[in-house]
Amino acid sequence: MRNFVTFFKIIRLTLSELNFIQMKNNFRAYLPVLAGVLLFSCGKEVSQTTGWEYNNEANGGFEVTPYEEQETGPGLVLIEGGTFMMGRVEQDVTYDWANIPRQVTVSSFYMDETEVANLHYREYLYWLSRVYGTDYPEVYKKALPDTLVWRTKLAWNEPYVEHYLRHPAYAYYPVVGVNWIQARDFCVWRTDRVNEFILIREGILAVNPNQTADDNYQTDAYLSGQYEGALIQDLPDLDPNKDTRKVRMEDGILLPRYRLPTEAEWEFSALGLIGNTFFERVVERRIFPWNGHFVRNPDPKYMGNMMANFQRGRGDMMGVAGRLNDNADVTAPIFAYWPNDYGLYNMAGNVSEWVMDIYRPLSFEDQSGFRPFRGNVYQTQVRDEEGAIAEKDSLGRIRWRDVTEEENLDRRNYKKADNINFLDGDQMSTVDFMSPADTTNELDVQSKMMYQNKGEAASITSMIDNRSRVYKGGSWKDRAYWMGPGTRRFLDEDQETAWIGFRCAMARVGSPTGLSK
Q: pTM (2 decimals)?
């Protein structure tokens, strides 16, 4: 059956290429290739390197799984990548010069269709309470949004404090009061729950509602063989020395990790320039996630309606009774308004959104032109003396550690684990640099870097440090200027507000467009 599927997959690809070559009048040159593919496909699949047959237990059982393309995870939309001009498209009203335009390339990836809603986050809280509530209640408490962010000293916002997170009227409104760390942890949890569901769907695991703190499904733990769960059956193993095996990454069954999008990914997907592209020409550059310099819908059917939820003017959060301009006082439902050309909702207005990046004013000058990002801290799984992955921690998670410089002595692409400060400037660039006579004190040099971590220095010389995370887009309380995808702001990763939410992303593996193209 596997060879049968592979045969038709190759034939389909071959015929699609054949049509192109016919148009180029090179059909004769292509005939030997087609004949070779047909001959190869009619027999057993063999290695083009060694000639040995794949998936044959008699010769060792090296497995090659038929694979077409990545499954789209729940809630996600494929964002076809490409090159674009990242950064400022309007005047810099803050004079920060922190978003200087630069052309970069973003690979294809997946993005949540909407912001994460209160209902989605409550599902997460319920799971944490059920699994960790008895033995480790602090895990649940750590994940709770701060509902007190709604309070304002000279305003009456207590109804939001009491009802916004829990009341069903706000179930599909974006969750707020979550800091960057909480948003990151939600992505980790979501990865595990989605992959657990896939294994249940494929008949490998059974539903297990009685998971405990030290024995719950974690994707890393499963892949390392440290989670059994409610097993129905393992996969048959073609290794002649084994009968069955766990699902491996090579099977293509499990999905990559959910995560926060990078700043470049978020900005690229928010612009949605795929709707303005004619061949390789972007025919109209955008200020907002829609065409034009205005914030109202030009469609005759919806003429004059606001395209997003934002503050139109001082003290004007929703317009006049009987004709509310955006039909929302604070946040709006996650499916409100019109999606952009990628099918993403509320990429302007409603709530600003966390992204992965560490904030630096000159990031756009320093970062790579391909998949730009600042914030890399390279890690590896903790292993014992024999090289095996160490036992799980008390929460059922595989432990990770930063890589050491000794492990990277022969590497050319990086040496240190923490690359957040890369290209930030040397010792002489800092505000409190040392005199030449003191340069022998290496520890003192390290303590006087340009961007200091909180608690590591006696005097703080900047509001920016290695905990400053970027958030993008305008919110319900912002003016229209901030709805431009090129704008950027920052906040400490452990702080939260009533106007910052988040959505998840996932890497796209393999073809950037899929076999459909």
A: 0.86
- DSSP category for residue 403: P
Tell me, what amino acid is at 250? E
Number of H helices, E strands in the chain: 10, 18
Dihedral pair phi/psi, residue 306, rounded to 5° = -65, 140
Q: How far apart are CA 35 and CA 186, in angstroms?
A: 51
CB 452 within 8 A of CB 460: yes
Binning pLDDT at 50, 70 and 90, where does residue 464 land? confident
Q: Which of 482, 505, 232, 475 has the alpha carbon at shortest distance from 355?
A: 505
CA–CA separation, 188 vs 260, rounded Å? 10
* 54 within 8 A of 45, measured Cβ to Cβ: yes
* 109 three-class SS: strand
In the predicted structure, residue 77 carries a pLDDT above the cut 60: yes
pLDDT tens digit sequence for 186-200: 999 999 999 999 999
Beta-strand ranges (E) seen in 366-462 are 379-381, 400-402
Taking the domains of the chain in order of start, what are their residue ranges? 2-43, 76-116+259-357+471-507
20 φ/ψ angles, rounded to the nearest 5 degrees:
-65, -45
Q: Which residues on adjacent β-strands are paired with residue 244?
A: 236
Q: How far apart are CA 115 and CA 292, in angstroms?
A: 24
What is the C-alpha to C-alpha distance for residues 349 and 354, in angstroms, rounded to an integer?
14
Residue 211: CA count within 13 A, CB half-sphere? 26
Classify domain 76-116+259-357+471-507 at the CATH superfamily level. Answer: paralog of FGE (formylglycine-generating enzyme) (3.90.1580.10)
Burial (0-12, 13-18, 19+ Cβ within 10 Å), 363:
buried
Tokens of 50: 């060694």
What kind and span of H or E run contains 220?
A: helix 219-223
CA distance 178 to 44: 54
8 Å CB contact between 204 and 232? yes
How far is the first Cα of the chain from the last one, in angstroms, to the nearest whole number?
25
Using alpha carbons only, what angle is made at residue 180 by residues 179 and 186, rounded to the nearest 5 degrees?
95
